[in-house]
Amino acid sequence: MKHYILPFEITNNMLNLAASIMKKIGKLDNYKDLKKMPTLRKNNRIHSIHSSLAIEDNSLSLKKVKDIIDGKVVTGDQKEIQEVKNAYKAYEMIKKVDPYSITDLKKIHGIMTFLTVQESGEFRKGNEGVFDGDKCIHMCPKPKIVNSLMEQLFHWMKMNKNTIHPLILSSVFHYEFVFIHPFSDGNGRTARLWQNILLANWENIFEYVPIESEIKEYQNEYYDIINNCNAKGNSTEFVEFMLKMIDEVLKKLIESTTKEANHISPYVKKLLDVMEGEPAMSSKELMEKLGLKSRISFRNHYLNPALENGLIKMTLKDKPTSKNQTYYIG
Q1: Is residue 282 one of the residues assigned to a domain?
Q2: Of 2, 62, 85, 243, which is least surrounded by CB within 10 A?
Q3: What is the spatial distance between Cα 255 and Cα 261, in angstroms, rounded to a whole number?
């Protein structure tokens, strides 16, 4: 197993895209921009889920996906509604699993396919193929070797995680996972989520980067490139495609964070700065941190606007006027 080699080449295009991605990550100020924008983080998560499910023919609209995640009653196909609930729970686990653990991979698949797939959380026991109409364009590896192939893939990642750039390694994983097709259903959803898990393990920002939204925009190209790589026996083209998707979505994320940041007043920015990395604090403690004496000014210019925009939260949300009330960045 130690000599297991995956067929791909590191090209100048990959290196240029990786450099561009690194530059954009730097522009996002080490994740602080997103940490101060809970609404944007949540919207990115919703877009990730909606896009990844839509790629697999889930017909629910973005609004319905948002309503389901917000706990509202939604009419529609019950399986599709369950898929949204499952995906939300699975994405909430991004920072809670080991990206190099097959056991955790099966756990995530079990969450992602709960009540919708018979072999949920287990590698497939039957033959699978990818079809274009009635034509089989990819016959997946036999089920008897799936476990061995997955062990080899995860072993390869462990052995190379410190020598191959995470952007490239995670993209190679994405392709190889789809090629092996280890589960009877839910492979695409799981592959896209697991690439996010690998990337978030490297840079926290990727916990809320909706790469899936960009893939959805280029869905036909996504599948065409997978088929091309299957035919060539080499994942280079797919890795370049995924790096392009990540680069493009980060460009959009920079634009959206800049736009939202411009709507935050200097007073609220100052409040968020003193709350950054701190436990929940009372109004009195916050006023002391800010050097303020006027409670009216504090509430009108700092506290209320931050609460109204969802930038901070109350620990006692059902008792907003409680003397024991404290506030934290949500």
Answers
A1: yes
A2: 2
A3: 10
